[in-house]
Write a structure and sequence with these properties.
By secondary structure, the protein is of the alpha+beta class. Among the domains are: 178 residues, no CATH class; 113 residues, no CATH class; 104 residues, no CATH class. Helices cover 35% and strands 14% of the residues. The protein contains 16 helices and 21 strands. The longest helix has 21 residues. The chain is elongated, with a radius of gyration of 25 Å. 55% of the residues are buried.
Amino acid sequence: MTDAADLAALAGRHLDLVAAPFTLPRSRVLVFREGDGVRVHTSEYEKRLSECRVLDALVVTDAEGAVLPVVDVLPGRVRFGRFDSLDGREDVARSLSEERSDESKRGEVAGSGPSAAGGRVEELRSLNDRRGPDPEVTLTFDGPGALSLGGAADARVRLVRPDGSVEEHPLGPGIRLRVADDRTVAVESGEHAAALAASASVWEDWFATCPRVRDDLQEMTAFCWWVLGANIVELPSLGDARAIVPSKIGYVGLWQWDAYFIAVGLRHGDPELAREQLSIAFRFPQPDGQLPDVVHEEGVLATSDDLPESDRDTLRRAGSQIADPTAPVPLTKPPLAAWALRKVLEAQDDPEFARAQLARVIASQDWWFAGSDLDHDGMPEYGHPYSSGLDDSPVFDGPLPTAAPDLGAYLVRQDLEIAELLARYEPDADATRFRDRAVTTQELLLRMWDADRGRFVAYGGGRIGGGRIGGAGSGVDGSSHGEELDSDTVLGLLPLLTGALPAPIAETLREAVDDPTRFGLEWGLPTVAASDPDFSPERMWRGPIWVNTSMLVAEGLEASGWPERARELREQTVALVIHGGGPHEYFNPRTGLKAETATTAFGWSAALFIDLAVTLTG
């Protein structure tokens, strides 16, 4: 059985300080590689790394002034010193010279600072030839808001602050760098050994709960478990609650959908923390039952007038007419709350928690039908692209609101999940209305099937198609339907989740999953079919592979009677993450590598890799 130290070492193989920064659970401090040293930032809601600079460089030198570069990283410490061989130093110099700046949808990704210059090999060779014992210095955390350095007593530390000022400090017995809320740094003497032991202990406790999986999946599972631990933050508005954010690089908040996916993966090692994510997501319902899109350190994001200006600017650049709506549009995420609640309770039952949260889930589900059926035809719509979770999907190129087949499928599934949860935790409750509503919604969903196209169709402007499956014409109340949105997207595969499609329709969707011209690509399911004019292998939600949609389609295949095909898709998805080098936000479906603008060390990708690994091991 692999112990916690072994798992931490496996995760450490991926801590390059470029795609994965050095950080600590609950800390807002991030450390990235910068040349032979590191740079330091804070992690803040809706702010880019460039706005959160603490130190532009931290460089360690020996007694003679020679730089001691970063030689390796573990979750609990960064080590500066000399390499055992010149080859190792040349590899690092080469990798640094190949760094490039990337920018994610909401913030800069790791590696966005100045890249290291090439041509260091001769300098490294001369350093490697020095005589005498090799000095060693380690960097670790001394609590969430402070860094600690210690080791070789005659070493020195050079600090470059954002204002350009440079200062040097002798290491002595150790120093502490205390980061204040305003990002200023105070330099103090500190006991390094205690900080090193404490930081190691935090990570040892975390990795003790890491799921044990199949040997070929264990290393990436360990790294993904590190990602979840690294992304734990405290949100001041919630007291001591532990929120796992999608990424400390640009996504500092608890997004409703992310919380569901993260809880599903987290349940395998820490079911208590998994329940805590759902508790936060469900904690702030609006008076009508709607759950907010985001819970963040300044409150919640529940309507479009709560959007930060950076999001409004993005919408304006895309030509959106809803960047500044005259009336606020509710912002939420697709209804997977009962699905996530059921999965978390499967890992560790908690009837009291279940009953408390189930009431909020029911209120949220009722809100979709009362507050988001914007054309009153019986099928709720997305009033804003953000509420879909697939913000940039081409189905939102048409008029809003959007009636989409994925939403219909989620609503059917959620009503059935609610009925099952009530039967278990509230046996005296009458669940008939949820089962009946699921049947009605399924009928409306089937009206979105276009037999000629062989796929489900979304409708801009809301109102869905006519009264026969695959038909066109009038809506359910006799009026004309909305604008048919012709894009062939992964949303059209998600009705498989209901497990109740007519056999010919389900078989047609399975064939689409296998079709190499549409969704059956070498590395997995693109979010837009490769044959579609809207397909782009790099553009967010318009072609790249996302782990969550692949996982949901796999569940749909299993629910619809193809468990072996579901397993194949799960195997393909974990192979993608390993090939791509980690749980990135999304992947190029042609290369299987991180898409240019995707965030690295992304929470739900990490959590769902773990869930898939456990499923495939079982």
